Amino acid sequence: MRRFLAPIVIAIVALALPAHAADPYFKGRTVNLIVGFEAGGGVDVSARLFAQYFGKHIPGNPTVVVQNMPGSSAMKAHNYIFEAAKGDGENLMWGPWFPVSQILEQPGVRFKYQDFALVGAVSTSGYAVYVRTDVVPGGLKKGADILKAQGLKFAGQNPFNSFDLMGRMSLELFDVRYGYITGYRGSAGIRAAVMKGEANIGVDSANGYRTGVEATIIKPGTAIPVWSLPELDATGKYVRPAALPEIPMVLDVYKEAFGKEPSGIKWEAMRLVMDYIASIGQVIVGPPSLNKQALADLRQGAYDTFKDKGYLADQEKSMGSVSAGVDLARAEKTLRSLGTIKPELVAHIRHHVESGEKVNQ
User: Fold this and answer.
1) Structural domains of the chain sorted by starting position, each given as residue range(s) with its CATH number in brackets
2) How far apart are CA 203 and CA 274, in angstroms?
3) Integer Cα distance of 121 and 151 in angstroms
4) Mind listing the pLDDT tens digit for each residue in 67-111?
5) Buried b (16+ CB within 10 A) or exposed e, 251-283
6) What is the tens place of the pLDDT at every residue in 31-56?
7) How confident is the model at residue 358 (pLDDT cuts 50, 70, 90)?
């Protein structure tokens, strides 16, 4: 018996000791955060700020690098992540989402948002529509004066772009005539066009409005903000964007102009698009094949970053507002709902988009 005691004791002790924990999945890895726009724009700036904190909150603390992949208004980046990115979690996309592009099956869209691996989503900080004051004889003083405007020229990127959709659909809600100039490369180009007078209406995010529009166009008196596009609170009620509290919502301006709430197909279609954009501002997505452990760790990193006090403070300091994390279950539900749109609303939105540059000219 004695000669077998030592091995038996060693085996028992070995079983009692905890197993060596495996290294975290992302230890020693690099995560590429793909941005579908050029460097220097609002999306790129927000991605780079997020990247500074993201890796610290992912188990294993990988290096996070922002890579720009501009092309086809971010569709190139979308399709790359959906079709070509490996499922190892090392390539994600950060940026605004384009639900209408999917609803209308825009040429070049080879993805479905509900099939991406959703890592996280953040709320929009709000949108502001601004108009040059010289569109009205004597000067545009308030949003309702848009009914007196002459020669309106809306500067946009393309008919599927969220800024363009919200700006154009709100103008159509007021039944005002306007021309549509497309092809501007981002908010900076649109601001320049409005400043020079080659266009007189622009739309920007709250971040872009605070950091670019306000100082260069609003304060000198060249333009005024006519209305904001609302946010949705926790109960689904429309409220003024927290980042733009001084700008009336488009609903407020409509009631002032017409003495009633908006209604009809134009409003229903606009509300559908507005609800999607108000629910989610930007998404972080990976390929459908994303490794389950990688997805869990990336989600932990994303939502811990959304709550990081340093990150929140840096957002406020550098961008003038804070984009909060959207509850993951709510975000996933929003993406899944894209397949349940009423046909009559799809038809109206399709007509709006397809009219493009021909609208109301």
Assistant:
1) 30-123+280-326 (3.40.190.150), 127-277+347-358 (3.40.190.10)
2) 14
3) 39
4) 999 988 899 999 999 999 999 999 999 999 999 999 999 889 999
5) bbbbeebeeeebeeebbebbbbbbbbbbbbbbb
6) 999 999 888 877 898 999 999 999 99
7) low
